[in-house]
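Project outcomes to date are best conveyed with an example. Our students and postdoctoral researchers have been running inverse folding experiments weekly, and each run begins with a structure described purely in tokens. The record below, which covers 503 residues, was selected by the lab manager from last quarter's runs and is presented without edits.
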């Protein structure tokens, strides 16, 4: 989207890729964003979510086919995401302070997408004839490179969304479109199980993962680079940016630490981060259990008898999120405010978590779909609301500091998401091991399956309930956000008048 006052884009020397319009201030960027821009941003979200969605499916191969110790598999889920979380704030600082004719975001989105896609394909070239520790270290090193690529891509990409509009409700609509498109990753990814374990296509799951990873990597690259090519982003005043240089790296790190401290001193933002950490972390702790519960509890350990039920479970969950949760939450947000929409949507999800205890029943697979309309409001309502709230927080931060730091706020927010993801990956392995799950056994001990089912209901219930309590104190409502916008616009008008008089 461009405003009437925005100067035309300069021609680019690189393949017609337009340079960013100069002289733009994000504080004056308001109004509706064209649907085409929202869709282009949403296609990037599909790539952003398909990477972790595919990874969650592929990770089952480590335990189910390679027979890797669940604790080692948990470490492989934990360490790369901790590394990812450490690099996110650094990347946020870099992208916020980059001075380029192609903008602060787009070059990094393009580069990061390519690194992530290529490393994902190589990461799954595992061989069961190698030792367990060889496969462990091979996977770990490639996973670190993959997550570095994801940091380079995702941090500036998320910041793009925050700065697309300054309108309170348009921000929610932008994120709703992006999340709606991105949710199709979770519709598609469960079918990777069917491909990987199809005996007509591959002799075993490891071979299936090796081949499919190449296609997934290429597809994700094409999706993830779309915003870099088609989305319009805008420059900020260079005077508000800091200088990036190798010589000044020490000062840059010090500035980064101070900036993170300032970010985490913002009360509404801290609440957003903690609530997201609890919901997303607890959800992902038990996400993989659905496969094991369906296969081992409902079908006695037979993947052949379980058939495509694990896949249909994942697909139905994503579809209900796409067509029920996201539209309803968006409407609720515009009618009753973001905090109320969050609290109500997450309260609905609690009903779904509890219902699954009775709906995982051997011989009755259709019962799995009854809790879906309630269950889907958990993650479906989370990111639609939280990413919109974070954009509002960026306005509050500019009022306090005078700088636009969407990249840093996005980085710190997603650092909390990834920290939750990392701890969830480790907790998954620890719970499975503590429950007595035996990777070499076809039939699992009944007590192990009972503990998995208890965790599947209890962990996300507790995490979500705590998040609701935290967000009850969130106070950045529509009225306050409009007042912040008014003060920013008045400040900008005053600065423009002073500059004109000085000139």
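After processing, the design step wrote out the following sequence:
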């Amino acid at each position: 989207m461009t405003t009437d006052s925005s100067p035309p884009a300069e021609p680019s020397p690189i393949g017609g890729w337009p340079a960013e319009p100069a002289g733009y201030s994000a504080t004056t960027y308001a109004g509706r964003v064209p649907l085409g821009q929202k869709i282009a941003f949403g296609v990037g979200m599909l790539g952003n979510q398909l990477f972790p969605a595919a990874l969650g499916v592929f990770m089952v191969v480590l335990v189910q086919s390679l027979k890797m110790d669940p604790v080692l598999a948990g470490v492989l889920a934990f360490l790369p995401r901790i590394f990812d979380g450490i690099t996110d704030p650094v990347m946020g600082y870099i992208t916020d302070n980059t001075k380029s004719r192609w903008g602060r975001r787009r070059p990094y989105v393009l580069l990061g997408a390519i690194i992530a896609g290529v490393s994902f394909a190589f990461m799954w070239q595992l061989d069961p004839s190698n030792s367990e520790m060889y496969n462990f270290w091979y996977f770990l090193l490639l996973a670190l490179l993959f997550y570095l690529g994801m940091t380079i891509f995702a941090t500036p990409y998320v910041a793009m969304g925050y700065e697309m509009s300054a309108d309170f409700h348009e921000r929610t609509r932008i994120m709703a479109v992006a999340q709606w498109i991105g949710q199709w990753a979770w519709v598609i990814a469960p079918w990777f199980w069917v491909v990987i374990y199809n005996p007509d296509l591959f002799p075993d799951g490891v071979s299936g993962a090796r081949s499919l990873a190449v296609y997934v990597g290429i597809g994700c690259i094409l999706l993830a680079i779309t915003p870099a090519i088609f989305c319009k982003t805008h420059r900020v005043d260079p005077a508000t940016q800091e200088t990036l240089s190798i010589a000044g790296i020490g000062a840059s790190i010090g500035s980064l630490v101070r900036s993170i401290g300032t970010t985490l001193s913002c009360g509404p933002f801290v609440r957003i981060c903690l609530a997201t950490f609890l919901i997303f972390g607890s959800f992902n702790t038990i996400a993989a259990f659905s496969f094991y519960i369906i296969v081992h509890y409902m079908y006695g350990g037979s993947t052949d008898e379980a058939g495509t039920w694990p896949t249909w479970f994942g697909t139905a969950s994503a579809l209900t999120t796409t067509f029920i949760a996201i539209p309803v939450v968006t409407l609720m947000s515009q009618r009753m405010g973001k905090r109320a929409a969050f609290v109500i949507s997450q309260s609905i999800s609690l009903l779904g978590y509890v219902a699954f205890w009775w709906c995982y029943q051997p011989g009755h697979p259709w019962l799995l779909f009854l809790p879906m309309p309630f269950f889907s409001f958990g993650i479906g309502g989370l990111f639609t609301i939280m990413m919109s709230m974070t954009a509002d927080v960026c306005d509050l931060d500019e009022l306090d500091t005078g700088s636009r730091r969407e990249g840093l706020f996005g980085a710190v927010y997603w650092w909390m998401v990834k920290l939750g993801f990392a701890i969830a990956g480790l907790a998954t392995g620890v719970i499975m091991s503590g429950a007595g799950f035996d990777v070499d056994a076809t039939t699992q001990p009944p007590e192990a399956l009972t503990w998995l089912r208890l965790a599947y209901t209890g962990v996300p219930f507790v995490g979500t309930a705590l998040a609701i309590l935290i967000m009850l104190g969130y106070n950045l409502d529509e009225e306050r956000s409009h007042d912040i916008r008014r003060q920013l616009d008045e400040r900008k008008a005053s600065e423009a008048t002073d500059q004109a008089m000085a000139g």
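The mean pLDDT is 84. The longest helix spans residues 132-162. The training component of this project remains on track.
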